[in-house]
């Protein structure tokens, strides 16, 4: 898949004798002169990044919850609740083990 460098839309292939990539939302056009192949490995975000960074777990409450990591099985964890779905869905509860730092979620 190739994306327009100006507006970010998905480029379409146009076969009008001269093959080219065209953007459906802006006038961008790029001639296809050879096979196009490029791989980009995307970096996945860590759970802390999604929850607000390093300071997200500051000043949160503790509760009795068993760590899912078999080696740890600690019975105490920090938790926070965040509304990540629509308003008619229940809040998601995120946990972080107080001993090993393992993170998990309960929806």
Q: What tags apply to this protein structure?
A:
mainly beta, four-stranded antiparallel sheet, three-stranded antiparallel sheet, 7 strands, elongated
Show the helix and strand layout.
Elements: E1 12-15, E2 19-22, E3 29-31, H1 47-51, E4 61-64, E5 76-82, E6 92-97, E7 103-106
Integer average pLDDT: 81
Number of domains: 2
* Distance N to C terminus: 33 Å
CATH class of the largest domain: Mainly Beta
Number of strands: 7
Name the beta content range.
25-35%
Strand order of the largest sheet: 4-5-6-7
Question: Main beta sheet: strand number and arrangement?
Answer: 4 strands, antiparallel
Rg over C-alpha atoms, rounded to the nearest angstrom: 23 Å
Q: Which residues sit in consecutive blocks of at least 5 with pLDDT less than 50?
A: none
Determine the CATH topology of the largest domain: N-terminal domain of TfIIb
Q: Helical content, roughly?
A: under 10%
Q: Label the overall shape.
A: elongated
List the secondary-structure elements in sequence, H or E: EEEHEEEE
Q: At CATH's second level, what is the architecture of the largest domain?
A: Single Sheet
Number of helices: 1
């Amino acid at each position: 898949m190739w994306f327009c460098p100006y507006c970010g839309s998905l480029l379409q292939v146009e076969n009008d004798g001269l093959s080219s990539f065209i953007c459906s939302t802006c006038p961008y056009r790029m001639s296809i002169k050879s096979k196009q192949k490029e791989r980009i490995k995307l970096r996945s975000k860590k759970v802390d990044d999604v929850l607000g960074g390093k300071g997200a777990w500051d000043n949160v409450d503790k509760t009795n919850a068993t760590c899912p990591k078999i080696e740890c099985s600690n019975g105490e964890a920090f938790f926070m609740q965040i509304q990540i779905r629509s308003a008619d869905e229940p809040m998601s509860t995120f946990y972080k083990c107080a001993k090993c730092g393992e993170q998990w979620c309960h929806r």
